[in-house]
Batch of 2 targets.
Target 1
Amino acid sequence: MNLVVSHYQKDTDMKNLSNQPCLIARSLALVGDAWSMLIMRDAHAGLTRFDEFRKSLQIAPTMLTARLSALTEDGLLEKRRYSERPPRDEYVLTEAGRDFLPVLFAIGAWGRKHRGGGEVTRFFDAETGTEIDPVTIDRETGAPVGTRAIRTVLPG
Amino acid sequence: MNLVVSHYQKDTDMKNLSNQPCLIARSLALVGDAWSMLIMRDAHAGLTRFDEFRKSLQIAPTMLTARLSALTEDGLLEKRRYSERPPRDEYVLTEAGRDFLPVLFAIGAWGRKHRGGGEVTRFFDAETGTEIDPVTIDRETGAPVGTRAIRTVLPG
DNA sequence: GTGACTTACTACTAAATTCATAGTAACTGA
DNA sequence: TCAGTTACTATGAATTTAGTAGTAAGTCAC
C-alpha cells in the first residue's frame, strides 16, 4: 500500500491517501499501521529514546528507524539532540503528536468494550482518581458520535 | 508483524498483540492497518458489497477478501446472504463494528486539525445541521482527553 | 589506556505480505 | 446464446517486514 516509510515514495505515489478529500484517509497515510500507533502510544507514555521504543515494542531496529523517521517527517515527533558527545537524539511529541492522544483513547475504549477481560492496563484521572472512560462527542450538540444521524458532504 | 489475515496464524503467533494487557494493542491486532480502517469507514458510509468496497478503495481483490474475512472473524462485520441464486453475500456492521465509529471520527478530527486544507469531506448533524466537531472526553469528569494528568495502572 | 558497556543506528538476508492482473463460478437478462 | 454482473480465487512479481549481526562514537571502571 506504500503508506509510510519513505518520504520520496510517498510523494510520488499516485495512489497516495494524503491527497484524498477524506480526512480519515489522509490521517491513515501517516499513522495507518500498528507500529506507528504503538510508537505514539509509547511516546505518550513518556518514552523518548530509540532503545526504549525498541525494547518496549520488540520491533526490529530497521522498522523502528523507518517509523521514527516517518513520524518525525510528518510532524508527530521531533528529533532532539540531548547529548553532543556522544551524539544522542531523542524523539519527543510535537503538538500534533500530543493531539493524537484522543485517537489512542478512542481505540482503547473500543478495546475495553469489545476485547476487554483478563488483565488490562487502566488509566485514571490523576486528580479525581476515577477511571477514565473515553467518549467521543460532538462538541456542538454534546451527543456521542454514533447516536445521531449524520449527513456527509463531499467536496466539489 | 502478522496482525491480521489468517486466523490460524494469529492464534499461534507468540508475539500476538491480542493477548497484551494494553487495550490499544489488542484493538490494533484487529484493525491496525489502513485497509481495515478504510473498510470500516466505508461500511459506516453504507457500503456492504464486495465490489462496492473494491471500487471505492481500489484494493486488490485478494487483499479485500483477506480483510473482510478477518473483520468478519473478529466480529466487526457480519456476512449475510442477500441472494440465494446466485449466491451473494454482503458485509454489514455488527454492534462492535458500529461502536468503531468514534475511532474513525477521532482520527478524522485529528486530520482536520493537522492535515486539513483543500477539499475535504465534511460531516454534519442531520438534525441541527451543524458541522460535527468530535472531541474525546472522559465521561466522568467531562474533561477532554489530554487536558488533565493521567495515572497509568499496569495489571498484576 | 584497555576492555566492557551503552546508545543509536545500518547492512544484509530471509520470510512474509501485498499488488496487479487474469481467470473462474454461478448466475441474469435480452 | 452471449454479454454482463458479482464475488471471488490463482498466480507470480514486487515490496515490505523481520531478525540477526555489526558498526560508530562515545563513556566508565580500574
Target 2
Amino acid sequence: MVDLGLLVKSHRKKAGLTQLQLANLAGIGKTTVFDIEKNKETVRWSNILAVLQVLNIEVEFKSPLTENV
Amino acid sequence: MVDLGLLVKSHRKKAGLTQLQLANLAGIGKTTVFDIEKNKETVRWSNILAVLQVLNIEVEFKSPLTENV
DNA sequence: ATTGTATTACTGCTAAAACGGTAATATATG
DNA sequence: CATATATTACCGTTTTAGCAGTAATACAAT
C-alpha cells in the first residue's frame, strides 16, 4: 500500500489548496480531509474518491490475475 | 475508475469463496461484501482494504505528478 | 422437478463516521 | 517578534454504515 495521506497532502499543496478549500471542492467536511491525510482508514470510500477526483488522482487495482486496467 | 465490484467478485470466484467466506476471512460482515461487489461507494475504506488483502489485490494511485508507487 | 447452496434484498439496532464549531498548535510572512 | 494563515486536535450532534437475522430469489446439481 501507498501512503495515501501523504499523496493527498502533496497533491493538495501542489494545487495550492488548503484542507478547507479541498474539502469544499470535494463536497466533504474539513475533518474528513484531515483524517484522509492522516491515513485514517475508517473514512468512506466515496469521500476518498471525491478528494482524488478533485486532485486528479486515479486509482488502479492490481493482482496476479489482472494484467489490465 | 475500474469496476471494483466486478473485480472483487471475479477474484472471489477464482478463489472459490462465497461472499460469506470472504466476509469472515476479511473480518467484516457479509452485507458489506455484497455492497462492495455492488459498487456501493459508501463503504469504509478499511473494509475495502480488508477484502483486497484477502484476495491479494493491490491498490495504486496515479496522477500526472506520480510516476512512482 | 427437488434439493441444496449462493446471492440478493430488506429490516431494525448499534456503533461510529461525518460534520461544524472551536481552540490550540504550528507554520509561514511581514 | 508579531501577525496571519494553516494545521491539528477535541467535542457534541446528526447521520449512516455495519451488522446479523431473515426471507426471497437465483442458480446449480442430482
